[in-house]
Design brief:
Blueprint (H helix, E strand, L loop, with lengths): L7 H7 L40 H15 L8 E4 L1 H12 L7 E4 L8 H15 L14 H14 L3 H7 L3 H16 L4 H9 L17 E6 L11 H6 L5 E6 L18 H9 L3
Parallel strand pairs: 1-2, 2-3, 3-4
Helix pairs in contact: 2-3, 4-5, 4-8, 5-7
Length: 279
């Protein structure tokens, strides 16, 4: 599987000559966060004895990677989507002078509560209630629990208009959903997924939004199940972040729900504008 930021829907729009993140002009750093990708995670051997990291820990690890590992003391831009979006708000509050610009996409700067916490908790429960999980000491993946969790992840990331257009019959819709969940399960580890879903438990930048000083372009999508269009947090937050702007990408049959952020064509002009108004 290609790393997300190297997918054609992102890379072909961002990194080429004259594009917003032209690699002939910028150094691009794409870290694997703790608990994800090839970074340290429970499945490396410690299982459920792995330290219970949260988003603050993950941002601190990124900061240490940059400052202690790479000798970098300032970034031109911090751009992140979904979990990376939430990290962007944590970065802006914790290290307000570290980046010249922030571009968080597909999140809200509030405590993870309501339905957003509920589906995550139910996904965790689905794994832990599978007898094959064995308190994290399984010899083979608890497939029933992983399927229950991935079913919820599939729905949370869905795009109603896009899926209706692409899969207009019951047969096509059912086959796509089942194939998508089955394919995703092949790449999951139960303990890793529990940690990933639970790492947002302490996230809540809302009380300290005034600490964010860098110019920010914050973008959400109207068809995002996880961050619904009718929340009023953006309107309230902008009053407390004078350097921030917000845009809601309209829902169409071409947008991708929560995953709209993985298609740079929807927001690369916003990125160019942010870079132009920051330094």
């Amino acid at each position: 599987m290609n790393p997300p930021w190297l997918r054609p829907s992102l890379a072909d729009e961002l990194y080429g000559p004259g594009q917003p993140l032209d690699i002939n002009k910028f150094w691009i750093i794409l870290p694997d966060n703790v608990g994800h990708g090839k970074s340290s995670k429970p499945s490396d051997g410690m299982r459920m004895r792995f330290p219970k990291y949260d988003y603050d820990d993950m941002v601190e690890a990124q900061h240490r990677l940059l400052t202690e590992g790479l000798g970098i003391t300032h970034l031109r831009l911090i751009l992140g989507t979904s979990m990376g979006c939430m990290h962007g708000f944590v970065w802006g509050e914790t290290y307000p002078d570290f980046a010249s610009a922030l571009m968080p996409m597909a999140c809200e700067p509030v405590e993870l509560a309501g339905l957003n916490r509920m589906w995550r908790q139910l996904a965790i429960n689905g794994i832990e209630k599978d007898p094959a999980w064995q308190n994290g000491n399984y010899s083979g993946q608890p497939v029933g629990g992983l399927r229950a969790a991935q079913n919820l992840l599939f729905v949370a990331g869905s795009a109603p208009l896009y899926y209706q257009a692409q899969y207009p019959t019951r047969k096509a819709a059912g086959e796509f959903a089942e194939k998508s969940v089955a394919g995703a399960i092949e790449h999951l580890d139960a303990n890793d997924l529990i940690y990933q879903l639970d790492s947002s438990r302490n996230y809540n930048p809302w009380p300290n939004l005034e600490r964010i000083k860098a110019p920010m372009m914050w973008i959400n999508s109207a068809d995002d199940f996880i961050n619904p269009r009718n929340f009023t947090y953006a309107e309230q937050a902008l009053k407390r972040m004078p350097t921030a702007r917000f845009r809601l990408i309209p829902e169409t049959a071409d947008t991708h729900g929560h995953g709209t952020h993985t298609w740079a064509k929807f927001w690369k002009q916003d990125l160019s504008a942010l870079l132009a108004r920051s330094n």
